[in-house]
Each structure stands twice: as C-alpha cells, then as structure tokens.
Amino acid sequence: MTETESTLPDAEALLRPMGGPMTTPEPNRLDVSVPASQLVAAANCLVAAHWGHLAAITGLDGGAESGMFEVLYHFCAGPAVVTLRTLLPRAAPVVPSLTGLITCAGLYERELSEMLGISIAGSSNTDPLYLPDDWPAEVYPLRKDAQLPGEISGTGAS
Amino acid sequence: MDTGKNVQKFILPMGPQHPALKEPGHFEFTLEGETVTAASVRLGYVHRGIEKATESRNWTQNLYLLERICGICSHIHATAFALGVERLAGVEAPPRAQAIRSLLAELERIHSHLLWLGVTAHEAGFDALFMYAWRDRETVMDLLEQLSGNRVHYSANVLGGVKFDINAEQATAIRIGLDFLEARTRHYLDVVATDATFLQRTRGIGIMDHELAKNLGVIGPTARASGVLRDVRVEAPYAGYRDFPVEPVLSQGGDLEARCTVRLAELLKTYATIRLILDQLPAGDLVARMPRKIRAGETISRVEAPRGELFYFIKSNGSEFPERVRVATPTIRNLASAMALVVGRHLADVPMILAGVDPCFSCNDRAVMLSRVDAEPEHWTWERLRRAGIAHYGGRMVDAGEVAP
Questions:
Q1: What is the structure's pLDDT at A151?
Q2: Please, is B248 exposed, middle or buried when counting C-beta atoms within 10 Å of its C-beta (0-12, 13-18, 19+)?
Q3: Is the CB of residue B49 less than 8 Å away from at least one CB of chain A?
Q4: Which domains does chain B have, with CATH numbers?
Q5: Chain A partners of B61 at a C-beta cutoff of 8 Å?
Q6: Which of B230, B324, B379 sits opposite A150 (nearest CB)?
Q7: Could B42 and A129 be called an inter-chain contact, meaning their C-beta atoms sit closer than 8 Å?
Q8: Phi, psi (degrees; rounded to nearest 5) at B369
C-alpha cells in the first residue's frame, strides 16, 4: 500500500463530518468544499489529527461575471494533497484567519489580502507584506479586472 | 544582565539595506536591552508581480519567466512548472529527460548549499571559510556552464522534456568535479563540527525541537535539522527521483549547528545521486510532443528546491495562456520560523538565525516598474528595456579578436 492510499482516506474520514462535497481531481488529491463559516473547524479537523501541513493558500478570481472569489487552502502529507475550497462573494469577501491554528498561515493571509482584497477576519497583522507603501488603496493586482498603475501588466514584446 | 532597573525598550529597524544580509528585507526588532522581545518582517523590495505576469504570457513564455523568479534555484522553478503543465496536458516527459532534470536540480543544490555555507560563515565572521566555500562553488558553476552555457539560468527545461543531452566528456567532467567537491565537503563537515569559534555562534542557538519545527511549519533542510522529514524528493518522488531515489538526511539537533551539518551531509547524498544518474542514465528521447493549448483543469506540482518544498498551483482555462499560476516558495515558511526563533535571543544572534534558514528574498518577492525618488515613476515597455539593454552592452562589447589567443 502506498502512502497516498493510507493518508487520503484518513483525510476523507476526518473531513467527512464537515459535510461538504468532496472530489478527487487527481489520484493524489482530495478537494473539499467548505463555507467560510466552517473553514476554521475544517482546518482544525486536519490540524488536530496532525494530518499534513499547510503548504500554501491560493486565491482565485472567477472574474466579475462569476461574482465570486475562491480561496484554496492546500494541505500536504507525503504525496497526498487536500485542498479546502471556500467560495466567497466578490462584493464582500471575508475569510476567517487560520493563525490561531497554524502560525505560518499569517504571511500567506497577508499576501492573499493585499493581492486580491479579501479581508481576513481575526488577523492580528494586516500590514502589506509585498506591495509598496505608496501602493494605491483599493487596487488589488491579482484581480482579473485590476486597473494597475502604469504598464506593469504589459505583455512582453507589445 | 538583569540590573533590576527598568530596561529601556527599543524598536530597531533593520533593512532593506543592512549590514547583516545581502538581500533586501525589512525587519523590526523590539529590544529590551540586548534581548529581542518581538520581531516582524516586511518584504516586497524585489517583488516583480510574476504571478500576475504569467496570466498575459503563453505557456512557453511562462517557462522562461518563472525560471527567473530566483537567481539561485532557477532550474527548480522551471521544473516545477514544466511538470505541472505536462500533467495538465497528459504528457509524460521521456525518462532520459526526467533524469537530466534531476541531475541539473542536484547540481543546482550543490551550488545553492555552498553559497549558503559561504554566507553563513561570513555572518559568523569566519571569512576564510566563506571564501573557500565560494571558491569551491566555482567548480559546480563551471560544470553547469559547461552543460547549459549559463551559470545561473540554465534553461534546461522545455515543456515536454529538456533541451540538451549529456555527453561522455561532460559526464567525466562532472565526476572529476564531484570527487573534488566531496573531499572539500568532508573537510567542511569537520570544520563546522570542530571549529571552536564557529561553534560558539551555532551550537545551542536558534533551537527548534521536533515539535516546534512541526508547529512552525518549517520545510526543507531547516525542518530536517529538527528531525522532521520534509523532503518532496522522498515523500512524493517526481522527475528522475522515481528511478534514482534520494536518501534523506535528518538530525535531531535542531540548532544552527544541526542546520549546518544537515546541509553539508546532504551534499554527500547529492553527489551519490548524481553519480548514480550518470551511471544509469536511461537511453531515449529528450522531448515528448506537447500541445500548444493546454486543456482546462487544475494541478498541483511540488518539488524540493534547495531551501525546501516549492509548491505550484496551475489552472488552465483551455487556452494558450494560464488562468492562474500560484507559486509558494520555501523561504516564506522558514522566515516565519526565524521571526519566532529570534524572540528571547540576543540581537547579535539575529543575523545567524536568519542565515540559518537560508532565506532567499527573490523567491518570496515576485513584480517591472522603474521608480526614482527625484522624478515621477517611469514605465518602460519590455521593448524599451530590451533596446536599452542592447545599447548598454553593445557599447561595452569586447571584440573576440582581442581576447582570443
């Protein structure tokens, strides 16, 4: 039995009580949809059982037409990757902070917040991490419709 | 020393230009006397907006863009991206290409670890070790140049395989280089374990036990020096590591000394892996055919960079351009641990604790905008930048006839 086979079912069993829909997009991956209100509880299912580590937080912008953001929390254990997927309305995007459970989540959350304009509820540090001090307010560069100052999104040779 | 009096509290800003590190990061340390009581970090001084830039470049252009995230571990970024895009396209690079990818990645690890050894020695005030380490690093830089034509950005990967092969002459040169480096590495292992002055700066400093390392979420050699097995090459073998497994190096020490010995000891394993790849390099093609458009989907590609796990999330919408590329680099995770470890330590230990996680700021900071303090920000198109580069170096071009014998 490979490690994937032994750990992905563990994660599935841990997250089953959360009740969210689960999919297996690739053999080593499990995606679990979780509403923002249950995110901390879902993350705690994995953290309390010492299942894997938080490898990254990814913010996706579905674009203005979809009206949604999606935040992905990727947990890795050996070759297995569990992703908690949280859909947020573009109009008022807020996710709870995971820093109470996972210390290193803070830096990822600061990046998510400044790049996509997603608020992190309960975060102790909301200072910009990467963007300059004089970066214009309310400009979130990773949004698909971001109006960036100047030509920084230029397409190479054009 | 506790004098019983109220100790004045200072906030000491360090950086982005500062004497302790050669890359830009801004730290604020709250001090009570000599003791650090709080620490915070501000990055972004070399942020280039690369994640955003990937969305307006095609899959092939992105391979070269992403390779430029880091000037130390460039090859591993391109490898992570290529492996992910190939998985999305349902294409597997040929075994020979996968082996060459791993071979290059291990050569890159040698140069990165020797660079780190030099920086750490320098922070400790041991400049002789710094210079010897960097002198020896030239051996592997020359090998990389011989293979790829470049010292830093090897551009070995293409989507679907690799660009160049390794011939018998190059294999011999690598073996000779490794013999020299192995002897030197054994000497350095001895030095970092016995030099009394160096040990004063490393032994028992920045201690992170197994439990704390797990809680802080550190990865790579920083985790392995605390007995936590975090090595993607071992946990989820990719590219050539499925055929050429790597033996992980662990230490239970958890202090700076352990971080030194783990990195040096894993160099010895790296030499063994490279020799094995050279001995058993699979025959066959170098490239598999890739489609121009990548079918819609999402994938996750994880590889072991010299500093730890490098994580790529790649989403395709079925076009020639990616919908989203998310890059999570190892330094950000390890830096968070350094911020926790400096608390309670003397200010003088800060540079060593930072150097102990081998921070790489270019990896963290990914946005092109030229800005001068005395003028309005100036925006250059890529073409203007390219022309300026040609004009700049064109004026300095040395006639080949002048240097040829």
A1: 52
A2: middle
A3: yes
A4: 50-330 (1.10.645.10), 369-405 (no CATH)
A5: 156
A6: B379
A7: yes
A8: -140, 120
Length of chain B: 405
Q: Which of A76, A131, A149 sits opposite B44 (nearest CB)?
A: A131
- Mean pLDDT value of segment B387-405: 44
Q: Count how many pairs of residues, chain A against chain B, have C-beta atoms within 8 Å.
A: 118
Task: With cut-offs at 50, 70 and 90, classify the pLDDT of residue A4.
Answer: low
In chain B, residues with a C-beta closer than 8 Å to the C-beta of A103 are 215-217, 336, 340
Are A130 and B53 a contacting pair at CB < 8 A? no
Kindly report, residue by residue over A51-104, the tens digit of the pLDDT: 999 999 999 999 888 999 999 999 999 999 999 999 999 999 999 999 999 888
Q: What average pLDDT does chain A have?
A: 87
Local confidence band at A128 (pLDDT 50, 70, 90 cut-offs): confident
Question: What residues contact residue B223 under an 8 Å CB cut-off, 6+ apart?
Answer: B213, B229, B230, B308
The ipTM of this complex is 0.91
B274 pLDDT exceeds 70?
A: yes
Pairing of strands A119-121, A94-96: parallel
Q: Are A150 and B377 in contact (CB under 8 A)?
A: yes
Any CB–CB contact under 8 A between A145 and chain B? no
